[in-house]
Amino acid sequence: MADQNVPPRRPRDDRGWDGRQHHNADGYGDPNASAPYGYDSPNPYQGGYPAQADPREQYGEGYAHAGQPAPGPRGPQWVGPEGLGRPVPARPGTGLPTLDDDESRPKVGRRKAMVALGGTAAVVAGGAALAMTPQLRGIFGDEVAGDATGSTVTDGTAARPSGQQPSTVRTYTEQNESYMGSRAGEALKKNAPTGGRTLSGPAAAAAATEVTVKTVLAKDPILHLARRATFGPTPEVIADIKKQGIDAWIRTQMEPDKIAPSKAELKLAELPTQKLSVQQLRTQRDQLNEQGAQPEREMVDATIARQIWSKRQLFEVMVDFWNDFLHVAADFDGGEVYRNSFDQDVVRKHALGSYPEMLIAANKHPALLIYLNQKDSRKDAINENLARENLELYSVGVDGGYKEPDVRQAAMLQTGRGIDKDGKYVFKPEQHYVGKVKILGFSHPNNSSDPKKADAAIDAYITYIALHPSTAKYVAQSLATRFVSDTPPKSLVDRLAKIYTTNNGLIKPVLMAMFCSTEFWAAVGQKVRRPMEYLAATYRTLGVSPEASPKHNNGDSKRTPYARGLRQIQDKLRELGQYPMGQPTPDGYPDVYVAWTSAGTMVNGWNEAGEILAGYRTAFTYTAPEKLVAKPPATAGAYVDALSQRLVGQKLSTREKNLILGVAGVAATAKVDATFNGAITAVARAILASPQHHLR
C-alpha cells in the first residue's frame, strides 16, 4: 500500500565515546570526518532515517525496510518504558567505572553517593518519588526501592489496513501521552498542579501563585522562569530578570530580532556551510566532499552553540519545541543540502510567528517533500506519507477526529507538489489529482489543474487543519507539556487552545497567556531535563566560553577550534541519545520524564560534567572549578553551600550536602582551601548530579 512506502533507514555511525577521562583536543574525534556528504554515498539503502532503534519495535512492521536486519545494540541510551526491562549494554571505558576514578583519595562510597543524588534527581519531579530503573537497581544493589517501569506500548497491526480508525491503528502513539500512561507517569500526575487562572501579566501571576507541589527546588519565581524559558539559568540571566523585571524580560525575549547576537553566534561564521544557499550546496558538492564538510552536521553544531550561548534563549527553546513538533530529521538523504534551509526558512522564520504559516511553508519545502516522499507522489501513484503525518503529527493529532478516508483524500489533494531540477519547490499540474475532496470537514472542488489554483487549494486545506480545534488543543497541550508539567492541567490547556484559535494560530499570544497563568508559576520542579538540556545547562552554569583555551592544539587545518569543539559536544549528545533534530522518525523526541530514564546515560552525563569541570575540552575556555566561588569559605560545609548557590541557584538539603561531603571524604566543619583540598572537581560534579540541576 502507498501508506507503507516510507523513507528507508540508513546506517549511522555507531562509534562510541572512547571513555578516556583525561582527553586531549581529539577526545571525541569525529566519526564522520572523512566521509563525503554528497550524493554518491556508498549507503546501500539510498537515504532515509539513520539506524538508531529498530522502527519495527516502535512503529510496526510497516516502518521496517525490506530485507534490512535489525541494528545491533548501542551504548547506554535514555529510553522509554518499552526498554526499561532490557539490560543496558556496557561499553569498555564508558559509564560507571569513571565514578571511582580518583585512586589517590580514599574511596568513601563515591559511586553510591552520586547515585543517591542523581538517582533522586532523574526520577523525582517535584518530590513525587519515582523509583530508580531496574538497571540502576541491578548495578547498585536493592537498596533503592520502587519500580519506574511502564507497560509496553505498541502501534497496532503491522499492515495498518485502511478503513480502520487511525487512533486504534496508528503509525505513532502520541509520544507524551503514551509514556504518561505508565505507573511512573501516574505517580507524576499525583503531584502536578490541578487548576488555575490567568492574570493581567506574568509578574502578577507569579505574585498571586502559591507553590503547593512537593519539590526540592527553591520556590523562587525568577529561578523558575529562568529554568523554563532558557536552556539553563546563568548568573547573567538571573541578573537580567531581576534588573528588568519578569514582565519586561519576557517581552524582550519575545522580540529576538532586537537582541544583539552573542560572541558565540558571531563565531558561527566559522561553520562555512551554514552561509551557503541550497543552490551553492548543490553546485559545490564536490569541493565540500573533498573538504569532508557535512552541512547537516554543521547545522546541528550551530544549533548547539545557540542553545548554550545565545541571548535569545526563549526563541531557541521555541525552535527546539517546533523541531520536535514539526519534525524533520537532520540525518536523511537530502538533509545535507536542504535541512539548513528548512531550519532557517521554516522553523526559525516562524518560531514566534504563525503556526499555519509555518505549516504551509513546511509543506512547500524540499526538505519535507523529500523526507516524507511527497515529491514521488502523483495522481497515478499516490504516496500517503506526508498527508498522514500532516494530520497525525503536525496538526490535529492521532486522536483529532480524522479517519482513513481523510488521509487518502488529503494525499490525493496534495499530489503535484515536487522539486525541480534546480532543487526548488515546483507544482507539477500533470501529476495533480483533479476532483472534489472532503477532509475532516474541509471540502474543495479541486477542479482545476492550473498550478496557482491547485496550489492554493492545498494551501487552503493546510490552513484549515492548522486552525482546526483539535490542532489548537494539540499545540496547547504540547506547549504546556514543554513549559509547565508532564501532566499539564486541563484548565490551562483549554485556555491556551482558545487563545490559539482566537489569534488564528499566532504563537506569541499563546506563550504570553501561559506566562500569565498561575499554573505555570505553580509548577516548580515539575520538569526533568532531557540529556541535551542537561548538557546545555551544564555548559551554561559553568560559564564555558567559546574561545579556545591557551592549551588547545588544533591539529586540524580544516576546522577552527570552535568548530571542533561544537562537533565534540554533538558527538557526546549523539552518544547520550538526544541531539538537535536527531530523532530519525517524524514524531520528534518525547518531552516527558518517563521517556528518558536510563542509568547509563545519567552516569555518562555526570562523567561529562567532570570532563567540563576539569577543562579537558580545550577547544573552549573554562572557569577553573576552584574559581567558581569568588571567595571560598574556609570550612567544607559552608563551601558546599556557596558552590551550590553558584551552580544551581540554591543551597542543597542537609542530606544532600552530607552526601557531597562524603564524596570528598571530609566533615562539614573541616578546614578546606579553594581546591577543597584537591576534591573541588568531584564536589562540583556531585552538585551537578543533584536534583536541583536535573530538574528544570
From TrEMBL:
**Where do Basic and acidic residues bias regions lie?**
10-25
> Sorted alphabetically, which keywords does the UniProt record give?
Membrane, Transmembrane, Transmembrane helix
Please list where the region (Disordered) is annotated. Answer: 1-108, 149-171
Q: Where is the composition biased (Polar residues)?
A: 162-171
Q: Report the InterPro entries cross-referenced here.
A: DUF1800
List where the protein spans the membrane: 113-132
* Name listed for the protein in its UniProt record: Uncharacterized protein (DUF1800 family)
What species is given as this protein's source?
Micromonospora taraxaci
What lineage does the source organism belong to?
Answer: Bacteria, Bacillati, Actinomycetota, Actinomycetes, Micromonosporales
